[in-house]
Amino acid sequence: MAQIVDSYSESNSDTETNYTDYHGYLFGQSFTGDGGTLNSIKAYLKRSGAFANNIYIYVFAHSGTYGTSSVPTGSVLATSDAVNSSTINTSLGLVTFNFSGANKITLTNGIYYTFYVLIDSGGSFATNIVYGGSDSSSPSHSGNLFYDGGGGYVASSGEDLCFYVYKDDSPNYLGKQW
Q: Are 43 and 57 in contact (CB under 8 A)?
């Protein structure tokens, strides 16, 4: 069973966030690594419209001031397995994005990261939308939400996305030497 690295509970959600760029929708959150191997990320999402685009979560390094101006920087560190948007409910719920193979990266203890949700292009973004449940009234996660503003990332220190980052369990060898 996977263990939580960082999270912000969906019980905090009071807003449905979506942002549009030329690719589709791109919004995300900064978080802190703990030395474990990335297993999955759960995002609190819903969809409107009847479309079947693939959705991914991308993990990047962090830039800016953590908690107020965190945004992605550099190359993609890890890409989740695809989740088809047709499998996402029309009401908010946790959606699991698994990481496999070379995308099971080590999240260095105490280092800040960012992840974002991206929908493959295609279809009408006016009617086919994915929303993220977020907290805009009293955000208290140590990181911050960000989105693609068309000309670059825009940090939102007054909003946090609801999410869970999981790591693989550490093996328990019961004191045996291998």
A: yes
Please, where are the H alpha helices in 87-175? none
Q: Domain locations in the chain? A: 3-167
What is the rounded distance in angstroms from the CA atom of residue 97 to the CA atom of residue 39? Answer: 9
Residue 28's nearest CA partner among 8, 12, 48 is: 8
d(CA 136, CA 170): 35
Q: Give the burial class of 18: count Cβ atoms within 10 A of its Cβ; 0-12 exposed, 13-18 middle, 19 or more buried.
A: buried
DSSP label of 92: -
User: Taking a C-beta distance cutoff of 8 angstroms, is the pair 141, 53 a contact?
Assistant: no
CATH of domain 3-167: 2.60.120
For 29, list phi and psi in degrees, rounded to 5: -145, 150
Report whether pLDDT(130) > 90: no
Lowest mean pLDDT among 3-12, 18-27, 87-96: 18-27
3-class secondary-structure state, position 12: helix
Q: How far is CA 170 from CA 6, 55, 83, 177, in A?
A: 16, 29, 26, 15
